[in-house]
Specification:
There is one protein chain. 45% of the residues lie in helices and 13% in strands. By secondary structure, it is of the alpha/beta class. The protein has 3 domains: 4-267, 3-Layer(aba) Sandwich (Rossmann fold); 272-421, Isoleucyl-tRNA Synthetase, Domain 1; 426-476, no CATH class. The relative contact order is 0.11. Bound molecules: zinc ion. The site of zinc ion (ZN) has 4 residues, from loops.
């Protein structure tokens, strides 16, 4: 069965054929590490983790590259053109690179909790300044770029193909989007490949044009080509990156004579309670806060219940419904895993397994149809539960286990070892930790700091992370246990 993907460039579903089978190269635009990841980052991580797992399931060898932006880029035009990382560094009284490192590791803690496999390569923009300078030099030589006052700009008007991915034209691009508007550009639509560092700019590197830092778009062209080579297979990212970021990536790579990505995938926005997330209105939650409230696998399961190309509206009721469904599925799966196979075959169960596989594969091959793939598992559940209840048909149940391990643990990644290893239910465990923290709080109130510290110390020894924040005490469970969802 061919794997069909929606290719943004061709604006239709097409059969995926890698350039050099069995190898597949995937590049995903990663986060800028200046604050904690939010839901959109979580969705991206989970969606492309499932893409990777599906390709592996189909027998491909996947090199999965996802970058981290850690050079000081300017905030978008709405934010006065300050450097995001530098702004944060002042706020947190840290070196800019300390900010980048702090949020780099916190990002991976969050995605680890979501059972997202680490990329094969995580290139950091700051580690690839030379490659970005080389690509900029190539564009200068070919006349697609020009230098002025220590900055280098891409000459937009010279690249007629601009807009072929998004269908938008350069005329639509707001002058200075993502880069500070400067009178020095030949054309307001030109974008920076290299920026001269103003005296107050901290993150800076030497270049043939003086001290400065790379423009945002150039890192992805340079790093994807470096690690995946000419004409690599899949380039992915959020729908908001289509324009101008991905258009610029394509222009920079192709104008320098390279063959760029062959397929383009874009995942859609995440809303919170029907509205766009925004820190200023308070309609905002970090991934970390969400993972403290719900078992991370409930969040993963919830994310996969929506198709990646549709808008996902995250609500509490939606999460709670997902938690119920997930724990129901987990219960059956635990029983299946604990089964000592005995007895013979069941033709009914055999037929249900065949149907599960057929529906699941058809769903995944149809542009990663995870909602339908999950539906196929729930359709299978009654037959499975009945066979588990009867306790016969051990041979067929063993087969069911093998298939469910492959699809649930393998492809969807919703049954990690730490969840299966725990036999304490999520809500009970959460309740116990909450109780201990309440006792600690009471001890502090009566100035019994010895008891308070001792409770915290014992929890820490058990791997429970306790953080006292201005908004109260936050905590999270160790990886090896089951963090609870609300049922
Ligand atoms: Zn990118």
């Amino acid at each position: 069965m061919p794997f069909v993907l929606y290719d943004t460039m061709q604006r239709k579903k097409v059969e995926f054929q890698p350039a050099k089978p069995p190898h597949v190269g995937v590049y995903v635009c990663g986060p800028t590490v200046y604050s904690d990841a939010h839901l959109g980052h979580g969705r991206a991580a989970v969606v492309y983790d499932v893409l990777r797992r599906w390709l592996l399931h189909e027998g491909y060898k996947v090199r999965f590259v996802s970058n981290v932006t850690d050079v000081g880029h300017l905030t978008d035009d709405a934010d006065d053109g300050e450097d995001k990382i530098q702004k944060r560094a002042v706020l947190e009284r840290l070196e800019p690179m300390e900010v980048a490192d702090k949020y780099f590791w916190r990002y991976f803690e969050d995605t680890d909790a979501l059972n997202v496999a680490k990329p094969s390569i995580t290139p950091r923009a700051s580690g690839h300044i030379i490659e970005q300078i080389e690509l900029t030099k190539e564009l200068l030589q070919r006349g697609y770029a020009y230098e002025i006052n220590g900055s280098v700009y891409f000459r937009a008007a010279k690249w007629p193909d601009y807009g072929k991915l998004s269908g938008r034209r350069l005329e639509d691009q707001q002058a200075g989007a993502r880069v500070e508007v400067r009178g020095e550009k030949e054309d307001p639509r030109d974008w920076a490949l290299w920026k001269k560092a103003e005296p107050e700019h901290i993150m800076r590197w030497p270049s043939p044009w003086g001290e400065g830092y790379p423009g945002w778009h150039i890192e992805c062209s340079a790093m994807s080509l470096k690690y995946l080579g000419e004409g690599f297979d899949i380039h992915a990212g959020g729908i908001d990156l289509q324009f101008p970021h991905h258009e610029c990536e394509i222009a920079q790579a192709e104008a320098a004579g390279h063959e760029f990505a062959r397929y383009w995938m874009h995942h859609n926005h995440v809303l919170l309670n029907g509205e766009k997330m925004s820190k200023s209105t308070g309609n905002f939650i970090t991934l970390r806060e969400l993972l403290n409230q719900y078992e991370p696998m409930v969040v993963r399961f919830y994310l996969l219940q929506s198709h990646y190309r549709s808008v996902l509206d995250m609500t509490q009721s939606g999460l709670e419904a997902a938690a119920k469904a997930y724990y129901r599925l987990l219960e059956s799966y635990r029983r299946l895993k604990a089964l000592q196979p005995a007895g013979g075959k069941s033709e009914t169960l055999q037929a249900a397994i065949a149907e599960l596989q057929e529906d699941f594969y058809a769903a995944m091959n149809n542009d990663l149809g995870t909602p339908e793939a999950i539906a196929a598992i729930f359709k299978f559940l009654p037959s499975l539960n009945k066979a588990l209840e009867q306790g016969e048909a051990g041979e067929t149940l063993a087969r069911a286990r093998e298939v469910m391990e492959r699809l649930g643990e393998g492809v969807l990644g919703i049954f990690p070892e730490r969840v299966l290893a725990s036999n304490v239910s999520g809500p009970l465990l959460r309740g116990l930790v909450e109780l201990l923290l309440q006792l600690r709080q009471e001890a502090r109130q009566r100035r019994d700091y010895q008891s308070a510290d001792s409770i915290r110390e014992r929890l820490t020894q058990l791997g429970v992370v306790v953080e006292d924040t201005p908004r109260g005490t936050q905590w999270r469970l160790p990886q090896a246990s089951l963090a609870g969802g609300k049922e």
